[in-house]
């Protein structure tokens, strides 16, 4: 993994244009509004190059907000209307399925998110073909962070500003430009096929910048007991009620989480219509009471405290219990996007502080 | 089966069974020739026509929608058409804000005897729709992103509430606390420029209460979850109007809620503060100089002037002090005069229909359907039973297209017509900053213009305009066709 | 589902401009349609038999008929599918005659439209559910509101039919306007002589409970089970004790009390009985003029009353009655004619209304039946009658005809001649409307036998001539000349309007009323007695202008409706009512607030407020469904999903 390249600050448009020839390049795009947001969109020539951390994580690259799993069509035998034939229709194609996807200016926390998504979609007894197809053709160029911020806490949960997990290339800003370091064979191929100058000589500058970034982080609490501690408060209803008191039960925390992967399946449309019936897979939100409402009307998590408990426990207790690491990467979007500014770190830290009974 | 190419346009009619459907029958019996475009859906009463059926049709390919009911006073159900008239008129004024020409929708009254009139209504409406041509689809519009100019001069001097008698307020809360389940307020959040809701149950928790321009969350949102319990609530002027609405809708009872108020000097637009400070930064310290906040971020000092960075609603605020209180601490300032058009709505006003379609297409594309807008709305009383997630009724699909997303915003805006106090929490809550408040502001403006200047959130005993009617409406001109 | 579609040719009515066979062919491609056919006359016996056969043969569980308007044959086909074992609501209709074949000649467009209308019907049908009616008990008791001749007739007929009747009358006596009349047209028989016995029957009938001097305060409930709160106004006389002897009235010192029964043509005492034949014959104190009640000093009647019935401290009392039906017979009032400034606007004492004139003619009236001028008590020589004062006059917002003025004016001129043989009567009229049995003959008698001078034209002004008479200036449009008559007295045929308070009562009864306060019948031709609120019927002028024979006939008709309804022990509701999904309902009460029928109530289910529909009250308008933001209340057979299915069939 010693393919290292250097790019001048003004060299990105060329670099991206080159990559766009064979890839769907998703890059941060600023959406101007009273409240400005930054989202990943397909980069096209002429667009400005934005390196900001996005408001929305790049999860959509592999797990779209809503995707059509299949289309089915029914037709009748004109001579016998009881004789109905059914065929699978074609799902309309878009760039996400026809081209390999390259995420540009991802962040370490978001890149680590892909590893969490891989767990249910690739590593179970069956691989999800839709996810697999996208994931197999995904490359990630991650920009290492130069500082921490008020909401992010990657270093609490096993990551860091330059954590390589999930990234094919790590890109670090130094003066005048950026050093790109391949972290996977795919990353190597990507850099080798570029016309960027070699950057081995200045790599120490990048390493120094990464160290500086680490050093700038606020000290992290020790979460090695978090799994047990969060499990220990599971039955402490008071604890969860207090932490969930301000929660509005919206989906801002889950939909903006790079590691949340829950989905819902619904059927829409009519198989007799020209566009057929669609089976849709769309994001679902465990903070909504509908998430666990059963057909009978019974709801095992009717209270928002139960739902917050589920989300935090999943990320910090049950998931690590099963798979050995947190399903939270500390990107902090659940904090920064929460309409009432709830802080998941408080929940975990307070759980650590609860004396064992 | 597409609409006959080139000959017909898609026109949907909703006709009440008793009068207009009969009128259409009478026209048929008289062999009164009519254009063939119209497809009639028979409903029991024009009052049954949910305006959302019309929006649903118009967003999904209808070129025109016609509603016809019994003449006022002739309603088979006494008053259904009186309600319909109000709701459909509000809809008519709403459609242009999402870029739909209001001429594509019409409502009128035709009696069972008026076959000739029906012929004339169908003919002239069909001609009108043909003159407009096929309706442009919102998803085909060219994205057009434009930002509202927030440089509107505030109606009053805004401040940070630095000299507000917070200690006195805390004492007042502590005095009442023994009789209350809890008191809802605000506390310092994860850094010095964010606050988060506080539920005070003890004197120590009361001491966590903060006051100032960062208290953006509408505390009224939490009231209905305490139904049946005695609670206290600390409110800004705008929050208090939501409390009034909840009282009006019988979702809380006046005896069960104790309202603590201090006059508000304005709140900050945290999104624009973030933009100024940088989204992902470390806030080291914050202080106030009365006219704004002085914040140190990543070691650098910034001045956040209220004049520059207050929320749009605070600039247009006419009721900085609570409209309903039990304990008022501090002197209520004089209420400023009538408010101008809010900046978000003024932006839409400045656009043509095509630009508006482009605007909403461009904005809604990034919506993730997290429903923070809905859940942050204190008047979204359906809570876990919103039609957006329901199969019965099945108004929407889970598809992530612009039409679904804009349709949800329309559902919200129309459900809030006559109920929305303009608190702006929907827009503030949106993580991706979609300026959806303008849609609610448009319904509020329509309601105010149509129903004698009615503004929600002032009188708990008032009948909301869309749940009432006048036999003779002052501001609705009924027959246009 | 397994749906069958039947496209009707209706002879050539549809088939001439719609390719029915092709439409049936297209229908076969629609979802769940397993059978489609075109038939010549679907509603005829063979057509219906074919539907039944197809249901059996193809195991259909839903049927669409594309034919005429559902307003014509929906009920027919519902019965058809029911006969074949389907629920009647598993049926939909597409109107391809009135809405397609009869209104356009373009066969291609019509066939396409037909197919789309069928597609919508199929889409809706796929969302239909079987509905069943509920049965409920009936309180076999009727409330009649208003004790005029129409109400009396309705009450007596119901009582005779064995139904207990609650009769509520606002005044202290029943009899209404008819009791004020001297004679009635076209027979010129004595009003009191024909009405009096009926009034006595009301008083004596064991099935009738009379609440006079009372008003309906509140109405709740629904057909078969109304609950009515009645306000019994304070009369200050204990009617249990009052014998109607009239001693109080003789002694009452407050003798300048305006006499409402006599249309203010005379004075009476503060405590009085309106007229000798009053039913009930009980005294009432006019509180505004009673010295005891206004000044606290007097008490003469209390001292005089031999039974000690006077009770100055009496308050309004309330009774609640449970009834199954209500007949509204609230009658009318004369409009305020003083808007006519050209007729003196009420200033000239000898310009009076026809009803006031009626009191002057009446032997029990203030003048003992002598026609004299109110101003000076002299007998008039020349009397001018003016028609349509406040009728058929758009300029003052009264475009309608009051119906009976032409006839009573003819009667009054005849009576005038009988009373004052030397007098001369003139009638200014617009048209003579005398369409009833013996009516035209009657008006002719006035002209031909009694020498009444009818002048076709309007009066433009009435003013005093300074010598005690009035100059009546008008136009004779037949001769085309101006007319000026010196009159001693002028009688105005003042137009009618709905009784005072009629709209308020309509709102309590949840029935509609027109711009003039007259109550709306369910169908102007075919349901003239019913209203759109089940169990509420109309009788008399409250529904629109009519004379005594018509009012009596409608009173009997209303009674027939009541008796027919009560002939059944159980009633069935229309199952197209609103239904609440209590899991979705958040109890915000918006539906309760706007339901026009009070059919939704707040109920507590497991500690939570929920809306509850009273199915028997719900009329199925669906306003609640359009109001409920979360869609928790759905009108059966017009649910959101059913209408959305139709919208989606057209727009996607």
Give a quick summary of the entry.
The complex is a heterotrimer of chains A (357), B (481) and C (652). Chain B has 481 residues and is α/β, with parallel strands linked by helices. Chain B has helices at residues 20-29, 51-59, 80-94, 115-132, 166-176, 203-206, 237-248, 270-277, 306-309, 312-315, 343-349, 353-364, 372-375, 402-415, 425-429, 437-450, and strands at 11-16, 38-43, 64-69, 105-109, 183-188, 195-200, 231-235, 257-261, 283-288, 292-297, 300-305, 327-328.
Number of domains in the coordinates of chain A?
A: 1
* Beta-strand proportion of chain C: 15-25%
Order of strands, main sheet of chain A, comes to: 3-2-6-7-8-9-1-10
What portion of the residues of chain A fall into strands of 2 or more residues?
A: 15-25%
Structural class of chain C: alpha/beta
Q: Biggest interface pair, residues each?
A: B-C, 67 and 74 residues
Low-confidence stretches of chain C: none
**Assembly annotation:** heterotrimer
Rg value of chain A: 23 Å
What gyration radius of chain C follows from the Cα positions, in whole Å? 31 Å
Largest sheet of chain A: 8 strands, mixed
What is the number of helical segments of chain A per DSSP (H or I, 4+ residues)?
A: 12
The averaged pLDDT of chain A comes out at: 93
Quote the average pLDDT of chain C: 94
Characterize the biggest β-sheet of chain C: 5 strands, parallel
Helix content of chain A: 25-40%
Task: Characterize the structure shown.
The complex is a heterotrimer of chains A (357), B (481) and C (652). Chain A has helices at residues 12-20, 95-98, 108-122, 129-136, 185-192, 203-216, 226-232, 237-244, 252-255, 304-323, 333-336, 344-353; strands at residues 4-8, 24-31, 37-42, 66-77, 80-89, 101-106, 138-143, 169-174, 177-182, 197-198, 263-269, 277-283. With 357 residues, chain A is an alpha+beta fold. Chain A has one domain (4-353). In chain B, 31% of the residues lie in helices and 14% in strands. Chain B has helices at 20-29, 51-59, 80-94, 115-132, 166-176, 203-206, 237-248, 270-277, 306-309, 312-315, 343-349, 353-364, 372-375, 402-415, 425-429, 437-450, and strands spanning 11-16, 38-43, 64-69, 105-109, 183-188, 195-200, 231-235, 257-261, 283-288, 292-297, 300-305, 327-328. In chain B, the strands form three sheets. In chain B, strands 6-5-7-8-12 form a five-stranded mixed β-sheet. Chain B has a four-stranded parallel β-sheet with strand order 2-1-3-4, with helices on both faces. A three-stranded antiparallel β-sheet of chain B has the order 9-10-11. Chain C has a five-stranded parallel β-sheet, with helices on one face. A five-stranded parallel β-sheet of chain C has the order 20-27-21-22-23. In chain C, helix 1 links the parallel strand 1 (3-8) and strand 2 (33-39). The model of chain C has no long low-confidence stretch (mean pLDDT 94). At the A-B interface, strand 3, helix 9, strand 11, strand 12 and helix 11 of A face strand 6, helix 8, helix 13 and helix 15 of B.
